[in-house]
Amino acid sequence: MMTDQDTRAALLEAARAPVQAELGKAPKFRVDQLHRDGDWAFLLATMQDSDGKPFDYQGTPLADAAQQGMVSRTYAALLRHDTHGWQIVAKAIGPSDVAWEDWPKRYGAPARLFTGG
Predict the structure, then answer these.
(1) Residue 7: Cβ within 10 Å count
(2) Per-residue pLDDT tens for 55-107?
(3) Going by C-beta distance under 8 Å and a sequence separation of 6 or more, which residues neighbour residue 3?
(4) CA separation, residue 43 to residues 29, 65, 67, 68, 69 (Å)
(5) Residues 100, 78: contact at Cβ < 8 Å?
(6) Of 5, 65, 73, 79, whose CB neighbour count within 10 A is largest?
(7) 22 to 15, 57, 97: CA distances (angstroms)
């Protein structure tokens, strides 16, 4: 049986994979929100380097945008659990606005996931 800690670790690992694939390096997450409702989960985190310092976009495809202040260190992910484990349904790497605002409607996820209710 999975503990809450196991579930949290599995969620964070699943959430980290697409960031690593897209940016070429894996951030450490400072979790701001992590809510789960049945097979759905929503993560809102601040990306950090492995040493806990603010995530450095240098050397990534978003380096120029970051230099111009056009990306944040925020990461949001909507995940859904299936027979293969936790899968990314939607993600926002470095959004400058509330990119997940329409996710409940667009993906059919429970709205309370995003409010922590």
Answers:
(1) 15
(2) 999 999 999 999 999 999 999 999 999 999 999 999 999 998 899 999 999 99
(3) none
(4) 10, 23, 25, 26, 23
(5) yes
(6) 79
(7) 12, 11, 20
Q: Residue 1's pLDDT band (boundaries 50, 70, 90)? A: very low
φ, ψ dihedrals at 5, nearest 5°: -65, -40
Residue 108: other Cβ atoms inside 10 A: 10
Amino acid at 27: P
- For the beta sheet containing 28-37, the strands, ordered from the edge strand earlier in sequence to the opposite edge, are 28-37, 40-48, 74-82, 85-93
> Tokens 């859904």 identify what position?
80
Buried-exposed string 61-74: b where 16+ CB fall within 10 A, e elsewhere = eeeeebeeeebbbb
**Tokens (6 digits) for 51:** 């040493």
Residue corresponding to tokens 């380096």: 63
The one-letter amino acid at 92: A
Taking CA atoms, 95 is separated from 37, 77, 92, 116, in Å, by: 24, 11, 6, 20
